[in-house]
Amino acid sequence: MHIKTTTHEHYALSEITKPYAATVTLHITADCYSENSPARTALLLLYPDLVLSGSGLYSREEFQHKLDELGSSITISESEGRISITMAALAEKLKPTLQLLEILLTKPTFKASEQKRATQTLKNSLELFKENARGIALSALRNSLFSNESRHFDVPPADVEKALTGLSTLQLKQIHAEFMNAYWTISVGGNEASLMVVLSALKKLKTASVLTLIDKEIVLGTEKTSRQVLLHEVKSKQNIELSIGGHMPLTFTDSDLPAFLFGLAVLGKWGGFAGRLMSTVREKEGLTYTIYARADGITTSEVGYWRILTFFAPKDVVQGVTSTLREIESIVDKGITKSEFERFKTILKTGETLVFDSLNNTTALVHTNLVYGLQWEQYKAFRQAFQTVTQKEINAALRKYLNPQALVISAAGPIATVQKDLSAFARKK
Question: Which of 205, 237, 260 delimits the end of a domain?
Fold first, then answer.
């Protein structure tokens, strides 16, 4: 595969060319974040559903039927103010699929009946979120680390639901206009002929842009100086879900980031059994089924946060949190071992290599990094740093950014019987 990234007046473009590829994947993302008000959040949550709910002369069902006949797909999603469209098609069905995409983007109908349906669907999902212990734990963690001016702050579902009653079709059309006029990040994967067809169609669609909707640089609020425990009762669940994490004042432009992410992978590599947390808290102690660590929210201009995802039965939760904190403290105090250093250089390199077995996965990877501000050559240089960083640099980064005494423990589930014991972790050293 050949990967090329270029920047243009109205968009940034990555082309992933694979000779003889029989499929085509297209990603388009626009950053439409402006504020975290309940009404704005509600509009962004409704928008993906409504754009796919009728375009031109097609109803929602008719449009989907046309896609199904072609064996193609078009999906729309929104995350933290970023609106993304993903299109997939067979190369031989590319042109009619692009015609449907053009109709979708240039002639959305936003029918009142569909808005009513989408609003009720969103209300139902907001109601279901009250039982989503894992989501509640993560949301509470994020909101403790970020101010409500940050894209990482989650507006409470109850506030979003209240805002739904005052929304108009005109406001939804304005969101669509923002998307169409925003600076686009585009990634397309396929054979050379297919890419030429896609790029020709996109040039017709993308003729204007607003280069600076808002100041995109978002920073954390006050850095934590002590440990915090957040507890939310969700009686219907059997297990207690936890998000444990903290402040991470790093962007992709900071030289410490590869060293810190390397160390975080040793602690709890996302997926599989390689991390310390899986080998101790799960394998040796049998306290949970899943326990992983990762960093989220980082771009070239925005800082993020690190977090650990896990869950425990109520009878095991105190020991589980104790064991998790023990492993965090151990890796901070003693660092990673020489054998871990050598082993994870191979693990991290192999995991990256496997992505390139698939055109779809490669295109998604290239696109995600372009959205975060990294052109392909910059991303390759960033990944290469995982092979050149030293054990000493990794341990120094862990000591600097992974503070066991200034993290947040966010728990949601049947906490009533262990609330006092969990609250005590805020005072333990």
Answer: 205
- Outline where 25-108 has alpha helix (H): 38-51, 60-70, 94-106
- Smallest CA-to-CA distance from 166 within 1, 43, 274 is with 43
- Asked if residues 260 and 293 have their Cβ atoms less than 8 Å apart, the reply is no
The answer as to whether 142 is a domain residue is yes
Statement to judge: residues 287 and 381 lie in one domain: yes
C-beta separation of 41 from 126 below 8 A = no
Position 311 in a domain: yes
Number of domains in the chain: 2
- At 313, list the tokens: 């039965």
Q: Give SS3 for 84.
A: strand
Q: Are residues 245 and 189 in the same domain?
A: no
Q: Looking at residue 185, which CATH number applies to its domain?
A: 3.30.830.10
The CA distance from 81 to 87, in Å, is 20
Q: Tell me the C-alpha to C-alpha distance, in Å, between residue 213 and each of 8, 121, 293, 384.
A: 17, 30, 33, 33
Closest of 73, 71, 74, 65 to residue 92, by C-alpha: 71
In which element (H, E) is residue 425 found? none
Residues 148 and 247 in one domain: no
User: Quick one: 17 and 152 in the same domain?
Assistant: yes
d(CA 155, CA 151): 10
Judge whether 276 and 343 are in contact, CB under 8 Å: no
pLDDT tens per residue, the chain (429 residues)? 899 999 988 899 999 999 999 999 999 999 999 988 999 999 999 999 999 999 999 999 999 999 999 999 999 999 999 999 999 999 999 999 999 999 999 999 999 999 999 999 999 999 999 999 999 999 999 999 999 889 999 999 999 999 999 899 999 999 999 999 999 999 999 999 999 999 999 988 887 655 444 444 444 455 677 899 999 999 999 999 999 999 899 999 999 999 999 999 999 999 888 999 999 999 999 999 999 999 999 999 999 999 999 999 999 999 999 999 999 999 999 999 999 999 999 999 887 777 777 899 999 999 999 999 999 999 999 999 999 999 999 999 999 999 999 999 999 999 999 999 999 999 866
Q: Does 388 share its domain with 302?
A: yes
